Amino acid sequence: MPADPDKLQDILGHSFTDGDLLLQALRHASTTQVRTRSNERLEFLGDRVLGLVMAETLYAQFPREEEGELARRFAGLTSRDAVARVADSIDLIDFARTQDVDPETLARSHASVAADTMEAVLGALYLDGGIDIAAAFIQKHWAGLIEEDLRPPKDAKTALQEWAQARGLGLPTYETLSRTGPDHAPTFVIRVSVQGHGINEGTGSSRRAAEQDAATGLLQILGGGQ
């Protein structure tokens, strides 16, 4: 049974005027046949709220960095992995309303559900309290990630693309080989190739995650992209 959402309000540092808004943010699409009653629309909004706040935060905090460096930081800090880490830091999944599944499926889908729910909660914070309330939460809970590594992060897809471009090759090609599992816990298999320089397959709970996994493996095959 999900934890009491009133306790989540204490963690978020905001008392909701519209309590139903928070409940919707915690409602996974797998629990309702009417998708507009799930947290997907709030997730869409929260992703944009996070993007705006993070862009402004990085712009102010790193005044000497160029656009490309800021963009790499932004990509890392708004990635599904980063959002899921923040969700886990406040045990957000304990409050989520999700379909009952077996432990193996739950473990496989954990990061995806946690990240989606976190973005939905950000959307709810914005609608109920405004941008300042949402920004206060983001700046507090992303501070550790910002300070964790001051070098602008570069994800595997970006690194592989730069490796190919530096050698005058075409852009890496990504192909979806399969999508299996239920809607709330899918598994994607993606193949990436760089013309004349190798092929690799990756898996993940989203296309983006599977593409990153495939790119990471191909970089290793290519010798770390050197």
Protein model, in words:
With 226 residues, the protein is mainly α. It folds into two domains: 5-148, Ribonuclease III domain (Ribonuclease iii, N-terminal Endonuclease Domain, Chain A, Orthogonal Bundle); 156-221, Double Stranded RNA Binding Domain (2-Layer Sandwich), CATH 3.30.160.20. It has ten helices and three strands; from the N terminus they run αααααααααβββα. The protein has helices at 5-12, 19-25, 40-61, 67-77, 80-89, 103-129, 131-141, 143-148, 156-166, 207-221; strands spanning 173-180, 187-193, 199-204. A three-stranded antiparallel β-sheet has the order 1-2-3, covered by helices on one side. Strand 1 (173-180) and strand 2 form a beta hairpin. The chain is globular, with a radius of gyration of 19 Å. The model has no long low-confidence stretch (mean pLDDT 89).
Output the keywords.
226 residues; mainly alpha; Ribonuclease iii, N-terminal Endonuclease Domain, Chain A; Double Stranded RNA Binding Domain; 2 domains; 10 helices; 9% strand; globular
Structure at a glance:
This protein has 226 residues and is mostly helical.
Which geometry do the CA atoms define?
Answer: globular
Major sheet characteristics? 3 strands, antiparallel
- What fraction strand? 5-15%
The level 1 CATH classification of the largest domain is Mainly Alpha
What is the total tally of β strands?
Answer: 3
> How are the strands of the largest sheet arranged?
1-2-3
Low-confidence stretches: none
Oligomer: single chain
Q: Indicate the structural class.
A: mainly alpha
- Which homologous superfamily in CATH is the superfamily of the largest domain? Ribonuclease III domain
CATH topology of the largest domain, what is it called? Ribonuclease iii, N-terminal Endonuclease Domain, Chain A
Radius of gyration: 19 Å
Tell me what the CATH architecture of the largest domain is.
Orthogonal Bundle
Which percent bin holds the helix content?
A: 55-70%
| Count of DSSP H/I helices | 10
**What is the domain total for the residues?**
2
